[in-house]
Design brief:
Chain lengths: 36, 247
Amino acid sequence: MMLKMIFRVLLVEPSQTLEGKAFLRRLIEDIEKLRE
Amino acid sequence: MTGAVGNASADPFQRDLTAPRPSDPVRSSWLLWLMQPFAIGVAVTATALLILAALAGFRVSSPLQFALRNESLQASPAVAALKSASQVWRGSGKAAPMRVIRPMRTLIQSGPTTFQWTTAGRTTSYTVHVVDDQTQEEAATSLQISPASSAVCAWTDPVSLTPGKRYRWYVTAIINEQEIDAPGIEEPRAKFSVLSESELTHLDELKKTNRGDHLVNGLLNLRAGLLDDAKDDFQSLIGRAEPDSRG
């Protein structure tokens, strides 16, 4: 699973896949949690 | 004449040019190796794997590995320190009609800093104050800023704040001839720190190998505590500019 995700991040632009977009949105949400 | 030729061929030190040449053993073995389809396949596969490994080594840095492996973020401890230092001074009460947006509980890079806050109705003007969090001395003050027509107002301080120091900031609005501060004394203070020169140098060195890669740069910014920069990196990857409505 991790290998699959690494290859997705490496070989495909993250914003061009649903998984990539979800990953980025989760990162942004987590940033806001760090401030709270 | 004929006899002379016959004598020359009989000479053991004279090379016989008419005799067939022996084939070069080294050259023929390389040709045979290249002719083997299996060997060609192995060579192509090995080259592809080497290129892939080089790309992987170039793009996967430790923060990305951390994020993928642990599915959590790795931020600077300085962010946690800012959070604990930004608690409410006293009680709870009426909040100001405007809110500060950024910088808020984050580290920033040295250089001109942009302060953002939400606008409030019937405001005559705004003034931004930046205060040294240790000495409580005012480090920067804006001129009076006219209200913007948009929902967010901003002011950029042209003077660099001191690297490694912690600051807090607030904005004063003139509303109905009354001065109102945001955040007020009832709200968490808007604190931020400026990244030290050594930390900034280290961060720049890490970014050099990933120039233009927003994902890795965002994770590096995040690890350094530059929350706003990291957020901007991730948002640019998503390709949509979400308005920052959180304080």
